[in-house]
Amino acid sequence: MTKTLTKHGDNLALIIDQSLLKKLKINQKTELELSIKNGTLIIKPIEKPEKKTKSKDEKIDEVAKKIMKKYASVFKKLAKP
User: Fold this and answer.
1) Where are the beta strands (DSSP E) in 10-63?
2) Between the chain's N and C termini, which has fewer beta carbons within 10 Å?
3) What is the sign of the dihedral through the CA atoms of 24, 29, 30 and 36?
4) Euclidean distance between CA atoms 30 and 45, whole angstroms
């Protein structure tokens, strides 16, 4: 595939075809790393570490801890005979 640069304001832009974007799994919001190696421009998506999703049990534990902390004094009063 051969491309030419397009004028974009005072700069030049490289237009990347949708088919190529899909193959690379990148979109308008993807951060790209640009580098030069042996006179060749290398454009590479920056891979961000995946966020660990919490299980339902982890979410419930988290909420329970918040409730226990917030209402600790109330629970202590209720526990007294």
Assistant:
1) 11-13, 32-37, 40-45
2) C
3) positive
4) 7
